[in-house]
Amino acid sequence: MIENVLSTLFKVIVPLSIPVLAGALLGRFKNLDTKPLLTLYLYFLSPAIILDTLATAEISFDDVYKTLSFSLLNLFLLWGLANVLGRILKLAPAEAAGLTLVSTFTNSVNYGLPLVLLAFGQLGLDKASVYVIGQMVIVNTIGVYFAARSQFSVRSAVKSVFSLPAIYAAILALMLRALGLHMPDELASGVSMVAGAYSPVVLAILGAQMVKVKAAQTERNVQLAFWTGITVRLLLAPLLAALVLLLLNITGTLFSVLLILASMPVAVNSVVLAERFSSSPSLVSRCIVWTTLASFLVLPVLIVVVGGV
User: Fold this and answer.
1) Residue 143 has what pLDDT?
2) What is the pLDDT of residues 65-104, one digit of tens each?
3) Facing residues of 106 across strands?
4) pLDDT tens-digit profile of 157-181?
């Protein structure tokens, strides 16, 4: 077991850590500005990898149905768990909202996709594509609601979803599949080349962002919420995800991929929502750093357990 974990650590986590470390060093010593890179990721790299993956993905309607069912049920249960814990611990509204963000949203896009590709190959990436698109929609709708219920606007949430180029790339890919059409080889080759740049760029962004959120000040009154969030994300979330997957009778590669994606560290963009709506950004930022660092040890164990690599 230990030998398998170490092997997975070197085969999966070490390659991923190189661009993360590079991004962290650039952010620390060269003050790397991630805003242009985020624009590149959001409007160019993300649509490319979604279009490239979905256009040729080996996924069935059953996979889509099970993935969406898992996403919604798992999200609902995590939201309920965070609310119950917030009430038991008598957290202030800001910390309660921050705990909800920490518990429910994972870094499945810019950390999860490269990890799944290395651990489970192209088949795993195919299975992950539907989940990731669903997460993009959820974060820009339900995520906004979790962060600021009193300021939530359905209209603005829907507008934010349809401002994401990846959504249109997904629609185009699904239309091509439905009509039995394919992109011209030259165009498909270009899209595939851009998609190949996705992993190193987004992982470098993650590293640079981690350096920035690490500097966030954490007040003493959020310590309890912090340890609760860490426990939920690293321990309870994987157990809950496994239970939901078994309940929905999801097996095979889809089970493995969804379990890993649901067990990822806290999503970096959670702190953006937390800062915008005053949902204890110090709590969220600290959880991002520590769950990401812990994931380098936790995820290899999970990958070995589910039979990846």
Assistant:
1) 66
2) 999 999 999 999 999 999 999 999 988 888 888 898 899 9
3) 266
4) 667 667 778 888 888 988 998 888 8
Tokens of 220: 């003493």
Token reading at 130:
């539907």
What amino acid occupies position 292? T
Token output for 91: 């957290």
Here the tokens at position 18 are 């190189």
